[in-house]
Design a protein that fits this description.
35% of the residues lie in helices and 16% in strands.
Length: 327
């Protein structure tokens, strides 16, 4: 069956190449260029390369039938943007899967009074679902199951390393936990992560930010969602912050999440999906600086996810000294 599928894709590739040459020689260059650089065409190329039918995020629902993605990604280059004013919440997109109704403008405007730079660790990067990975494009790793691998070069550990390297290059000390919290058993992942977080927080009370980095998934079988953004002219995954609300101090974390969300959009418009409020905890009750971030989705490639992770790290660097200095 796999050989038949591969042969079919090779045949389609040959037909496509012949058609492109025919149209180009027929004077349809401009129209052809528009077609071959479209999002649908990009998804088709990935099918030819991998055999997997990936879809861009606007074509599939996520978490509910009426879920709305963020607007099409801008093509503006990522910049070292100054901090936004944090006084205008109109440009922020949120999705409510919770009965809580927080005062978003007030939480966005609330000053952030931390300083992430220092000698002791201030950031903990962790992965509840460590083995999550992306759509393979000729990468040599072995999957433990569909879109999952224990290979640290391609699962969420590699995404965490991307963030860690940028933070440390900017004077922010980081602990990166590499434990496989979801392998060999997926059940109980959050319970195991909770114990790991508590151990680190007890050992390093200097930790101010806890990043639980995930990869999203939506769709059935090979039809996996692919989020789409553009960073410096290159294809990138999108980022989505997920905030649990089933604990008393969730607004402290939400205040931080809103600022990170706003900073990301200021430096790279279109990089975020709507911030999600969910009726859960996600271990965020353990800290007033705990964020869960979905870095792309199963339909994205690993390089696309890394580009998005770089933007997340740059946003944190921009917020490293807090926002109280703006008041």
């Amino acid at each position: 069956m796999k050989q038949l599928s591969r042969a079919r894709r090779v045949g389609l590739t040959a037909v496509l190449c012949a058609l492109v040459l025919r149209l180009w020689s027929g004077g349809y260059g401009d129209r052809l260029l528009e077609l071959v650089t479209s999002s649908d065409a990009a998804a088709f190329y990935l099918y030819l390369e991998t055999g997997r039918d990936v879809r861009f995020s606007p074509s599939l629902p996520a978490f509910s039938p009426d879920f709305m993605e963020s607007p099409p990604a801008a093509t503006l280059p990522a910049t070292e943007a100054l901090l936004p004013s944090f006084s205008d919440a109109d440009g922020l997109e949120l999705y409510y899967a919770s009965t809580k109704d927080p005062d978003i403008p007030a939480l966005l405007a609330q000053p952030l009074t931390w300083d992430l730079r220092g000698e002791e660790p201030t950031v903990l990067i962790i992965h509840t679902h460590t083995t999550e990975s992306y759509t393979r494009v000729d990468e040599p790793y072995k999957e433990s199951s569909a879109w999952r691998t224990t290979d640290e070069s391609y699962n969420m550990v590699s995404i965490g390393e991307t963030v860690k390297d940028i933070l440390e290059d900017n004077g922010i000390p980081v602990i990166h936990d590499r434990e496989l919290h979801d392998y060999p058993s997926y059940n109980g992942s959050y319970t195991r992560t909770r114990s790991t977080i508590q151990d680190y927080v007890n050992q390093y009370p200097s930790i101010l930010l806890i990043l639980d980095l995930h990869r999203d998934a939506a769709g059935e079988g090979s039809n996996q969602m692919r989020t789409s953004a553009t960073v410096d002219g290159e294809s990138s995954a999108q980022l989505m912050l997920v905030m649990g609300t089933n604990y008393d101090t969730y607004e402290e974390n939400l205040s931080l999440a809103l600022k990170v969300h706003a900073q990301l959009e200021a430096q790279c418009p279109g990089i975020t999906r709507p911030l999600q409020l969910r009726a859960a905890r996600f271990n965020q009750d353990l800290s007033s600086g705990a964020l869960l971030v979905e870095v792309g989705a199963a339909g994205n490639t690993h390089p696309e996810a890394q580009r998005a992770a770089e933007q997340l790290a740059k946003a944190i660097v921009a917020l490293a000294e807090g926002t109280a200095r703006e008041e």
